[in-house]
Amino acid sequence: MHECMLCQRDMKKSKNQFGNGCINNIFEFLNMKKPARGKNKEQFLYRSIMNETGISKINKEQKIWLTDRYLTYQYLDQLHYGNFNKLKEQVNADIKRVNQIEKFEEMLSTKKIKLKEAYDLYKKERKFDDNLSKLSDSKYEENNEKLKLLITSFSFIFNMYKNKNQYEKNSFKEMQYTFWQTVIEIGGRYADFKIAAEFLQHSLEEKPEDLYFSEGKIIEEIKQQEQFQKIISKIIEKYGNNNKFVFDSNEDKDFSISFSNRDLYFAINKAELKMIGKKQNENWNLKIKLHDRYDYTNFKKLDDYYFDTSSVPKSIFSSTLYNLAYYSMKFKVMKEYNIDIQFEWNDFKVVE
Predict the structure, then answer these.
(1) CB-hemisphere CA count at 13 Å for 173?
(2) Mean of the per-residue pLDDT values for the chain?
């Protein structure tokens, strides 16, 4: 089987190194004028690259090897996610000594990266940038299915289990970081997920410190949640018979702390709760502690879980994104940290 040197597709009976589509794409990529009709495109490409590099007096095989390394360098030079400077130096060193090479395997940089790998990574970056631009485009705010499909299209940068190329892994990690920055922007600006966006941003730091809250918006948001008020009321109903009680959710698993508010749900869902209560007249004075570990350890099925069909911006933290965050945690793009919230809630009135 004879494969195209760039895309490695079977060219059947062709004696050329590149398929016709690939050779045309190369001329376009290099911003190089194609030869007049009828002239051999590959030979023209070889001569053009020799002129560009100032290399002459090389045999047929060396022309092919020079073209391989030159194209590899040019694709690497267009990449802006990951650091390829050292690798480009190695490729460039092989280019300069191509006239001394007797076997392709003697080119040291070929052991680090193949032409097709550089080409594939270049295409993936172009796809990523195009999708990122669409994700930032406000026209997707009103189309739920398009946004969900678009978010799913980023999944290739999170699939690194089968990829053994460390350069591509590093590149994908930087793409993930950039992706989450866009999610934070959309989640905070359009969906009003300010708390979840803040916590997500914190997880992207190199070494995020634990967070502690004793006042502020997050506590006010928690107090306003009817679902949380009902959970507190049920705890009081069970433990408050002697006008005072101590509660620990680690000892009583019947009470799961979660929030119907999506911002809080994705920020501190299923937190541990500790509470001390003392009855004051008909109401209760409470000391409340919430503890959560910011992580995405439980992979969710890619369905419509928490995907709001009425508002696309409010769906930005759908289960699809939850699962992508799961992989970012695995690859240390996002990091885990503790969240502790402590406050007093005086004159709490039990709700039905």
Answers:
(1) 19
(2) 86
